[in-house]
Amino acid sequence: MAYPDKDQTYPLKGYERLCFLKNIIQNPNIVVGDYTYYDDFADVHNFEKNVKYHFDFVGDKLIIGRFCMIASGATFIMNGANHLSQAISTYPFAIFQGWEHAMDGKSYPVKKDTVIGNDVWIGHNATIMPGIQVGDGAIIATNATITKDVEPYTVVGGNPAQIIKKRFDDATIEKLLQIRWWDWDIEKISQHVDKLTSLDLSDW
What we know:
Structural class: mainly beta
CATH topology: UDP N-Acetylglucosamine Acyltransferase, domain 1
Strand order of the largest sheet: 1-3-6-9-12-14-15
Number of helices: 3
Mean pLDDT: 95
CATH superfamily: Hexapeptide repeat proteins
Distance between the termini: 22 Å
Radius of gyration: 19 Å
CATH class: Mainly Beta
Strand content: 15-25%
CATH architecture: 3 Solenoid
Shape: globular
Largest sheet: 7 strands, mixed
Helix content: under 10%
Low-confidence stretches: none
């Protein structure tokens, strides 16, 4: 049975605006699952430029699951952007010469890794803030700014993003989270693509 080659950078012949993202990532702190694609209006290599404030010395990771769809201009703000908020000033004195010791005995706030689940659709110019967890099957609308975690199979939009709706009823969501089709081997996925493009759960 034929199926796309997950190790091919440009899976659409003659079209280099879309790539299987894991095949172009250079930063070891960005981890991307198989078949997740990124589409960029100019150059797919812009993706890592859109992962902002991702400093090695902070050590946080951007983890993206399998079969995600990421549109041009999607931006991920990482923990290196954080400033003090529980101090008199938020100003980063310690990064400037002469004030190097301003943070002695203190530390900047660092949230957890940013984790995007499987089968997540991230719209054009969406922004994901540091430490966000986006559940499987979620949809993030164009221009949304995600400031808090997104539940599985939830559609969110706006700035700051709010819940627009759940994609399915709770029972269907629970069943989909149990099925975890993205973890199937590619042969099984290929055999069931007709059902994956419907909402027929009768045989599962």
